[in-house]
Design goal:
Blueprint (H helix, E strand, L loop, with lengths): L1 E3 L9 E3 L2 E6 L2 E6 L9 H18 L3 H14 L11 H10 L3 E6 L9 E7 L7 E5 L4 E6 L5 E13 L4 E9 L5 E12 L8 E12 L5 E6 L8 E7 L10 E4 L7 E2 L4 E2 L1 E6 L8 E6 L3 E8 L2 E6 L13 E6 L4 E6 L4 E5 L2
Antiparallel strand pairs: 1-4, 2-3, 3-4, 5-19, 6-18, 7-14, 8-13, 8-15, 9-12, 9-14, 9-18, 10-11, 10-13, 14-17, 15-16, 19-22, 20-21, 20-23, 23-24
Length: 347
């Protein structure tokens, strides 16, 4: 805005082109025309208000609450896109703003859809041209990505032994943003590596996990802690032209503290699970959020089950998932630690 000193008095009033002339306190002023702002939609207005409410809720957190959230992120590996633990301020906003996810897993039934079947695999034995050894702190992993949500039952790995490696542990883990194993084992099992053949064969390992989600990358992790260079488990791999595009092979040389990739390599594996049940069959509902407070399960208007005090910032514990058996028509109301309620109906 510009003040115009004109001894002859006001000579212009109103808009002319991109400029507006007006009189203020007896003096003439000139300013540029303000551009028209887009009118916010109802959804945008609601989102902005929700964010303001989240900021207000965060301000009310006590200092011990803030310290607990900071430590929780470090301890449980809650990280940002750069794999840096989230500060308490951002994690608090996540607790308020993140929606509750309801994941329905239909139960297997008798017949073709309820039978065990192979889902993900890279098992053409003719393609395997090399091996990698697993012993002591040298752990191996293979990632895979299910295209169908299903219950895991077992895996088969293409292995053989060199010497007597002792007990071998195989587990399933989640993966981080870079596709490498992260967090604790979701399920684990062991077998005696001394019983492996001296030539490659398929070794089956029972791993019962009730919830492998489609388009989510997981890792099969193998280790033989009592092994050594002359007593190891060897996992056959394709190192020249692997065709499995939904995962890759990798290694940890420090007992799982850090991970690296074997570029252009895939291990031989098969992953089995139960076929999904038909639509409408009773199933298991997973309710997921970083901090659930309560869950109310109703069927035909009557309360079937009710859980409360699942999370408490003051008592320093958070519940991230609850599983309940449901039927078609059931209504579930879940509330977060921030007091936000979500409703889901099973269809």
């Amino acid at each position: 805005m510009v003040k115009i000193r004109n001894p002859l008095g006001d000579v212009k009033i109103g808009r002319q082109g991109e400029v507006v002339y007006q009189r203020k306190y007896g003096e003439q002023m000139r300013r540029m025309v303000s551009p028209k702002r887009a009118i916010a939609s109802e959804a945008q207005i609601a989102h902005r208000q929700r964010y303001r409410d989240a900021l207000d809720w965060r301000k009310l957190l006590s200092r011990p609450n803030r310290r607990y959230l900071e430590g929780y992120c470090i301890t449980n590996g809650v990280v940002d896109d750069y794999h840096i633990p989230l500060p308490w301020s951002r994690f608090a906003l996540k607790l308020y703003l993140q929606h509750i996810h309801f994941v329905l897993i239909t139960k297997p039934i008798a017949g073709e859809e309820g039978e065990e079947q192979k889902f993900e695999a890279y098992d053409n034995e003719a393609d395997f041209d090399a091996f990698y050894s697993c012993y002591a702190n040298w752990w191996l992993y293979q990632t895979f990505t299910p295209l169908v949500t299903h219950d895991l039952t077992k895996v088969e790995l293409y292995l053989y032994r060199y010497g007597l490696p002792g007990t071998v542990t195989v587990s399933i883990r989640n993966t981080s943003g870079n596709g490498r194993p992260t967090g604790a084992d979701l399920v684990t099992n062991t077998f005696n590596g001394n019983d492996l053949l001296g030539s490659p064969s398929w070794q089956g390992i029972l791993l019962a996990l009730s919830d492998l989600i489609l388009d989510t990358k997981y890792a099969m992790v193998m280790r033989a802690p009592s092994g050594a260079g002359n007593k190891a488990v060897r996992w056959r791999a394709d190192t020249t032209s692997p065709t499995y595009t939904k995962g890759w092979a990798g290694v940890s040389s420090d007992g799982g503290a850090s991970w690296g990739d074997y570029p252009g390599s895939d291990f031989g594996f098969r992953e089995y699970g139960m076929g999904a049940g038909k639509a409408g069959t009773p199933g298991l509902l997973h309710i997921r959020h970083p901090a659930l407070l309560s869950v109310v399960h109703k069927r035909q208007g009557k309360v079937v089950s009710q859980s409360s005090n699942l999370s408490s910032l003051d008592e320093e514990y958070l519940t991230g998932q609850v599983g309940i058996d449901v039927e078609v028509g059931d209504i579930i109301k879940a509330t977060t630690v921030a007091g936000i309620e979500y409703e889901y109906q099973v269809v």
